[in-house]
């Protein structure tokens, strides 16, 4: 997990039942995905959603307003595969097939090289140890209280 550094990339804060995650967005690597994510944040789309998928030592997944893994925003984002790699705290766009990104995203608990080049990476968790503790504490059904810039 990357330490928080002063930079030019935008950040959002995910306020969860378990604490706060500082998410650095990567607009140079995935401009369409970041723009769509920021639009959803500004519309408070994620507020009150629940982590509907938690796989220890792999990922946590959110962004579904239905809470069952099948909901979405009503639009799709084309894939933006980039050279960033899946390390601990990498944020990727969940898909049901090629070019089907929308609102569901996942955050990796550890390096996941088998995902590289398949799912759009558009952000990463920063903040080192405190963020890692929050990420590792998230359980199935825990809530996103709010996401804000």
Backbone structural class: alpha+beta
So how many helices? 2
Shape: globular
**CATH topology heading:** Cyclophilin
Distance between the termini: 20 Å
Poorly predicted runs of 5 or more residues: none
Number of strands: 8
H-E order = EEHEEEEEHE
Q: Percentage of helical residues?
A: 10-25%
Rg calc? 14 Å
Within CATH, the superfamily carries the name Cyclophilin-like
Work out the count of structural domains.
1
Describe the structure.
The protein is an alpha+beta fold. The chain has a single domain, classed as Cyclophilin (Beta Barrel), CATH 2.40.100. It has 2 helices and 8 strands, in the order E-E-H-E-E-E-E-E-H-E. The protein has helices at residues 31-42, 129-137; strands at 11-16, 19-25, 53-55, 59-62, 90-93, 105-108, 121-126, 144-148. An 8-stranded antiparallel beta sheet has the order 3-4-6-5-7-2-1-8. Strand 3 (53-55) and strand 4 (59-62) form a beta hairpin. The model has no long low-confidence stretch (mean pLDDT 95).
Properties at a glance:
149 residues; alpha+beta; Cyclophilin
Furnish the topology, listing elements before pairings.
Elements: E1 11-16, E2 19-25, H1 31-42, E3 53-55, E4 59-62, E5 90-93, E6 105-108, E7 121-126, H2 129-137, E8 144-148
Antiparallel strand pairs: 1-2, 1-8, 2-7, 3-4, 4-6, 5-6, 5-7
